[in-house]
Amino acid sequence: MARRHNVAGRDTAPLECDVCCVTWHKGRDHHTGTMVRKGKPYMTLFPSIPADEFGFQDILYEKKDLVATITLNRPKSYNAYTTNTLKELITAFNDASSDDRVGVIVYTGAGDKAFCTGGDVKEYAEVYTQRPRDYWKYMGLFSGYIEAIMKTGKVTIARLNGMAVGGGNESQLACDLAVMADDTFISQVGTSVGSVACGGATQWLPLLVGDRRAREILFLNQRIDAQKALDWGLVNRVVPRDQLDESVNEIAQIAIDKFPECTRYTKAQLNYWKDLSWYGTVGHARDWLSTHFTSLEPYEGMTAFVEKRQPRFRELREMAAEGKSTEFLWGPYRHTCAECGAKGIPAEFTWCGACGAKLEE
After folding, report:
1. Angle 251-182-203 from CA coordinates, rounded to 5°
2. Domain 51-291 maps to which CATH number in 3.40.720.10, 2.60.120.590, 3.90.226.10, 1.20.1530.20?
3. pLDDT tens per residue across span 333-349
4. Are 87 and 57 in contact (CB under 8 A)?
5. What are the pLDDT digits (tens) for 29-65?
6. Residue 8 CA: distances (Å) to CA of 12, 69, 78, 86, 104
7. How far apart are CA 53 and CA 56, in angstroms?
8. How far apart are the first and last CA of the chain?
9. Does residue 60 sit in helix, strand or coil?
10. In the chain, what are the domain boundaries?
């Protein structure tokens, strides 16, 4: 045992730590990073914080035996992420990145149905179609989440316990490696719900699967089963569900037995093409998506999703062919009320919404 050492004007009894093989001071000093090695104090500004101290609501966070596990914990919503979920995920990935007691990060979803199904479409329909300018803020948060995964400096493993759809596939693409249960699937759904998968899919799918296959995934939005995902290079391994944890842990242990700084810089080099395509497009995507949220396509696509019906794809095409507006729900802002003078009334309105008077043709 090391001798007693005065910290911040008080004496604390030393405690031998079996994990790091150095002497730590009792109490909060272990977490704040004050330790004694051979009787001399050593401070770190990046202490290891116990995972249970974060108090997350939407995710589970565990750190054990050099592996951090981050779990999306919204199984009733197929592990779709909300605005709050993204904030928690950023915090967890950033913490795992700076914690020297973490060598590998495993990212997964709760339950056995979904790894992640992207953004919560109900939140999109209720919030962001009503306040499109806030979607610009949301996309800034989403970008921070994806970049938090990419910039960890540690090997990240996507444990695909269920379907990876939309932003869920983009999330696993942001990870370094992926292990997939053999009874699940991957898909993109952007053009089916009134959005564009430019949060990683348009940027990185051509790098992983080639241009033609990327176009097939993004234009057709069909399911890619586990075997095809492996054949196309979307994942590293496909295993029976009961072997998923064993396979993920095997990869994690192999990655841990490598030099950490060499691993970090190897990752930085490997990310060159991902960084180039990401940073060259995501700012533009952020602005376009927030502007597009003012139009009919996202309103129809996300309302149809919430109402559990097929979107009116062909009806919108017919409207365009007939010269009608497909940008506005009730047509462009055309009418002026002769009674009260209200302006900007949608073209398809018959009555004034301000005073109730019948509109002139």
Report:
1. 70
2. 3.90.226.10
3. 999 999 999 999 999 99
4. no
5. 444 444 545 555 567 888 999 999 999 999 999 999 9
6. 10, 34, 49, 37, 34
7. 9
8. 92
9. strand
10. 5-42, 51-291, 320-361
